[in-house]
Amino acid sequence: DRPDPPRSLRLSGVSGTSLSLSWDPGFNGGLPQHFLLRAEGPDAPPLPAALVTSGFELTLGGLRPATPYDVTVRARNARGESAPARLRAVTSGTEMAPKP
Q1: Are the beta carbons of 72 and 38 closer than 8 angstroms?
Q2: How far apart are the C-alpha atoms of 19 and 91, rounded to whole Å?
Q3: Tell me: domain 7-91, CATH 3.40.190.10, correct?
Q4: Taking 80 as the threshold, does the pLDDT of residue 77 lie above it?
Q5: Which pLDDT score is estimated for 19?
Q6: How far is 37 from 18, CA to CA, in rounded Å?
Q7: Which of 38, 57, 81, 83 could bond 22 through an S-S bridge, CB–CB 3.0 to 4.6 Å?
Q8: What 3-state DSSP class applies to 9?
C-alpha cells in the first residue's frame, strides 16, 4: 500500500539561508520508502527540484533571508506517495558572517 504521511514535522534549526527539518516516519506500507521535500516562498525563486532523502531530517539551503516558506514532506514508496505533512517556517533576518 501507499505509505502514511510523515508525522511530527518540525523545525530543528534556522539561519538566514536555510531551514533544518526533522520528522517521524509514518507506516511505510510494507515497502522501502524515501521522502520528498519542497519549499515555496513568496517572491522567492523555487528550489531547483524536490529534495529526496531516505533519512528523517534534512537542511534546505539556498533560501532567502527573512522569508516565509511553506514546506511539504511526502513519503514515497513503489506504490505511490503519501499526503503531505506541512510546515510554515521563516528564515532569519540575516546570515551570520564567520568570524575572522
Answers
A1: yes
A2: 7
A3: no
A4: yes
A5: 93
A6: 13
A7: 57
A8: strand
**What is the per-residue DSSP string for 45-91?**
PPPSS-EEESSSEEEE-SPPTT-EEEEEEEEEETTEEPPPEEEEEE-
Quickly count helices (H) and strands (E) in the chain.
0, 8
What distance in Å separates the CA atoms of residue 51 and residue 89, rounded to the nearest whole number?
Answer: 17
List the grid coordinates of 1: 500500500
Contact 65, 95 (CB under 8 A): yes
C-alpha cell at 41: 516562498
Mean pLDDT of 41-46: 74
The β-bridge relationship of strands 68-77 and 85-90 is: antiparallel
CA dist 3 and 71 (Å) reads 19
- pLDDT value, residue 90: 94
